Fold these 4 entries.
Entry 1:
Amino acid sequence: MLSKTIWATGDIQRIHQAYQRYAGGRDERWSGRNAGNQRISRARFEDLQSLLQNEKLLPLAGKRILDIGCAGGGVLASLQRLGAESGSLYGVDLREDSIRHARCAHPGLHFSVTDGQTLDFEDSSFDAALLFTVFSSILDPDLRRKVAAEANRVLRPGGVVLCYDMRYRSITNPDTRPCGVSALRDLFPGYRSRVRSTTLLPPLARNLGRLTDTLYPVLNSLPPLRSHYIAVLRKPGT
């Protein structure tokens, strides 16, 4: 089932075109073969697990979870390691090729194509909503607010938003703009938040080579070298 998707105009079209360029082989920065990227993913998962544990949300069994901007579904699928059930995991993305890949890679999960501002789900139907590097990919402030409003709409009272995004502007990627912690809190007014910095600067992490496992934790211990944050925001209510 597809929700109404705006392909032809504005920020949605810009995002779509940017990912087409990456898919065309012009950018290998996100290759899963890179040891730095692998270490970034592992550390991010560990931080997410720690935040969920602190919020007393583990295990995730019985919780219905939506990943907005799910890409290939890897982050969403990883939640099964924390007890989430495949039939309760839903992912949406504006890129049809990403959804095709997600369906092939994770056949037990639910995936559909949408741009995130018109979700085909009922009000208060999810326990958690993931937004990983979504807001930094949206340059239009109004579209950011629409996506946040939809996440809020489908989230039940007492549910949580799980957000991973950029602290610093990328000098090599003009298609992104940081969504700082204060901006994130403005998008979800009234939510209680818990935030921590994470992720060694990717240009540095990706060039550690065979020393990645040794140097990554040492360099990542320095807060100024952490390029992203990971946050859990709890919606008011019970």
Note: Strands lie at 65-68, 89-93, 110-113, 126-132, 155-166, 192-200, 226-234.
Entry 2:
Amino acid sequence: MSAIDTILKTVAENQKDAFLKLFQTIEKHIPKGFEPCIAYGMLGFVVPLSIYPKGYYCKAQEPLPFISIAARKNFITFSHMGVYANPELYQWVTTHFPKYSVYKLDIGKSCIRFKKWNEIPLDFIADLVKKMSVQQWIALYEALYLKDQ
């Protein structure tokens, strides 16, 4: 059973279509090298250990996380670690989101919450996930999080 099939079993029926479209958009547009998996109870896209054997600094035996999505009771979340780590990318998100959606951006440090899950701006997601390659994410991750190790 694939990661998406496993996670879809936990998604509320009224959210499944939107969640699946979000996953498919990410999968279609994410740069080569990232792989889907289940991480921390969410559907994630990670840098696999075959590409980055050092793994995640908190848990070296786990692949380096990048993007994750989850269905919650009242919203669907999209988390992008590059948005958290790169201020320019965060700025791009906050500046460009209104060009793709009539709804107000609901964002934390890396997590965008979509309360109107049937109206997730998939073109925005497609453009955002294309903005960082595996190599760029590894370099940024190492520069920010492994500088003292």
Note: Residues 33 and 134 are 6 Å apart (CA to CA).
Entry 3:
Amino acid sequence: MQRVTILAALPWECACAFSALQEVRKGRSGPFPWWEGSAARCIVRVVRTGIGMQRASDAFRASIAEFPCDVAINTGCAGGLIPALEPGSLIIAGEILGTSAESAIAVPGWLVEELHGAGRASGLDVRIGRELCVAEPLMTATEKQRAARELGAMAVDMESLGIAQAAREHGVSFGSVRAVLDAADSSLPSSEGLVHPDSGRVRPWNVFKKMVKDGSSAWTELKALHSWKRRAEAALQAFFATWLGECRPSALASATALHGSNRR
């Protein structure tokens, strides 16, 4: 049976993947919780990384020491950088880069095709493109549009490059499937202090204080964010229900054989 690791920063992002598994059991690799179960002819581990490249990289390394895998998939939400993408659009990364083109890591073509096919089979608006990974979120429409213009990226996240680099070090094929949360022309409300960076969990008391301080504007912003989140969540659930329902063992087996020949 092939082994797949799926990594996501936030609890709800992880749930989109492990809800498609059977016979799920829970555990931890150091500080990183995981859910492991079966899907078609695959064994899948879903790991919650927390927010940011370093946490994501550390989570992958902690997991692979206990759960060697053939493929690693980074997932979750992303910011849209081009006008064509709306909340709930699915981005399959063909390439992951940091703030310079020299950092780019290409995703294997067979895996891009596989993930794209599952997205289309799910009935989603799915695109293939360059994905930008940043240390700090792009909060405004101006920042997002500048990133698209200068780096040619379609979407932005905060974890994928760290996982891609760690996966490459271990000879593991890496892919990224992200659902757009905020569109290119939308600005994100400030979430500083509202989410714990290690666990990705919302801090209810801090949310309450923000609403008291900012009044109706905070409520409007959070309501919009919740609506975007529901659309992104629905897209990821649909994708993983399709992809993990099939798990494409022939493609994964080909990748495993290739890695094995490269190691000898």
Note: The two ends are 21 Å apart (CA to CA).
Entry 4:
Amino acid sequence: MLSAIEAETKIRSLISPLSQRDPATTIEVVPLSQALGRILAQAISSDLAFPHWDNSAMDGYAVRYADVGQASTANPVSLAIVERIPAGQVPQRSLQPGETARIFTGSMLPPGADTIVPQEDVDAHEHHILVNAAPRQLGAFVRRQGEYYQSGDPLLKAGLRLSASDLGILAAAQCRQIPVYRSLRVGLFSTGNELVPLANPAPLAPGKLIDSNQVALEATLHSIGITPVLLGIVPDDPVVLQETIAAHLPHLDVLISSGGVSMGDYDYIDRILLGLGAEFAVRSVAVKPGKPLTVAKLPAQSGGTLYFGLPGNPVSALVSFWRFVQPALEALSGWVDLPQRRVTGYTTLPLQGDQKREVYLWGRVAWHPPQGEKPEGYWFTPASGSKSSGNLIHLSQVNALAVLPAGERSLAAGAPLSLWCLAVP
């Protein structure tokens, strides 16, 4: 068995990110409205500066600092109102000494003005104002052209997973068509004679199980921006399994299965992959749950597809996906600034480990301020119920895994520990 770190390193060595392949086959252009969650394939710059022009950060009055730098309640400065400039209107004249323009948040600064006086610092009259307080400095409440971004500079770098705020930036820069890496082509199937699809309307027969793995794994793939190719349930028949795998390999970047990778009489996946010429990186990992894990890469003539064979037990399948498959898919997609899911926290309850294997205990993590003797930080509470790899029920609402190194037999309540967050905290 490999350690978790060894398995992670071997998996990483198999990955050929989309960013390192022929752009003609990996980059597509999509409308901005369809770019959320996609990986930006090329750096974006803009011909626009941000702000586009000098503008006001306050509702108030545009002034010359030289006119009002000494203003006070005891010595107010009178300025003539010569213009009113709503947002979206271009100023019609330059300010001269002794003049001011009524201005609003976002309004263009008129030529000659260099400072904004907030409206609460003046006594306003029909044709003039009295400034009762000097601005804090020259340029107060003025947003200068190019202060946030200079035209032609990089705006967004390649390799970003585009967020809602990124789309807002691109919209402001008038970017309507966005170059992104194509979506990964990921196939997904379950294997097992005992499995029944959820769509089957018949009552569940004795000895049969609903294929919950495919439902949970499909949803998890969707959550990271991948729409998988669903291949259904494949029986424990080596001929049918071989035909299914071989038929789909040329069309996929990744093929994921659950079940059939242990040492039982009906576990055929590894021998089928061996027959197809696969290069194995991982056959089993010293972790609990999830020891049976197959990771292999098919030869180029079969498409060079990356294969992940997950255990069949539902907890093992999901934990293995979270820990090993999801980071690989994120790297493969061309995402550069990969999320750092490992954080240090504390456990609210005692935890039990294992002498020989790294243990993952599922539960919930939340940030808590200092309370009594408890320090500020991430606090982990394990899920209730049995820690069996078949206990899918108690995975409800989990958002983190506590990671206990091999040989760590127990942790006391309040002890620090490593956490693997399923969502970036």
Note: The two ends are 31 Å apart (CA to CA).
